[in-house]
Design brief:
249 residues; single chain
């Protein structure tokens, strides 16, 4: 098992996997780490669907379009989940407040699911496995993914996570420096931010030009903004409403 330092600081996204299953003992550690995730109110407003069926993985690959989905050993879908508590409310004849119609309700579900995914990432990485978080599981076609997984009202996909035995070791991507990410007591002024942003953008540009694999001319800022432009076409609010998250306040 890797040290905490190596697990956290050497993590990188793995998109190519060996054709072998993850041992059950390692998966049980990942499941236990997921279950022990800290959550809002200890409400555990999340759940996970572990996809190992080859046909279902292929169907999800056809929807989402990320090749690692069909080649990984396990594809975990992390859901915001208020369905379970609504089942409890019906069982006990308790009035269920419309928490899923609030922005805070959506945020609570997203935060819980995201924390659970990071628990899984850390556990998997500590065991020498490869991981890749896949946000397109949420955005590519929410309705089709929901149908494929049989999702009930009160749930929606937050993110996917591919797990497998790594078949590659890509270069470690440069991350923002501490002075651009961790602030002391208050948020810095734009004047203080600009030099660090400019230096980081240049660093990413150089890394992309000289990285192993397929080099590119991408920088940091323009490349990320292009993702935002693409995301403007996503109709996530409509998808959320169809899953019972009709946000009104």
């Amino acid at each position: 098992m890797k040290t905490v330092k190596d697990t956290l600081l050497d993590r990188r996204s793995i998109r190519r996997y060996e054709r072998e299953m993850i041992p059950e003992k390692k998966m049980e550690l990942i499941y236990d780490a997921i279950r022990n995730t800290p959550t809002s109110y200890n409400g555990q407003q999340f759940s996970v669907i572990d996809v190992t069926d080859p046909d279902l993985k292929l169907a999800l690959y056809d929807i989402i379009g990320q090749k690692q989905i069909k080649t990984c050993s396990h594809f975990l879908l992390f859901l915001a989940d208020f369905h379970k508590i609504s089942v409890f409310a019906k069982m006990r004849d308790v009035d269920m407040p419309p928490f899923t119609t609030t922005a805070d309700g959506v945020i609570v579900g997203v935060v819980d699911a995201a924390l659970a995914m990071m628990s899984a990432v850390v556990a998997a990485e500590s065991e020498g496995l490869g991981t890749c978080c896949i946000g397109y599981a949420r955005t590519a076609n929410p309705e089709a993914v929901s149908r494929a997984l049989g999702l009930p009202d009160g749930t929606f996909v937050v993110c996917g996570l591919a797990l497998g035995v790594p078949r590659e070791l890509p270069d470690l991507k440069p991350k923002q420096p501490k002075q651009l990410m961790i602030f002391s007591n208050s948020y810095p002024s734009d004047e203080q931010l600009r030099p660090a942003i400019d230096a980081y953008d240049t660093e990413v540009s150089l890394w992309n030009r000289h990285r192993a694999g397929t080099p590119s001319e991408n920088d940091w800022g323009n490349h990320i903004i292009s993702y935002y432009r693409e995301a403007m076409s996503y109709e996530i609010l409509k998808a959320l409403r169809r899953q019972g998250f009709d946000i009104t306040r």
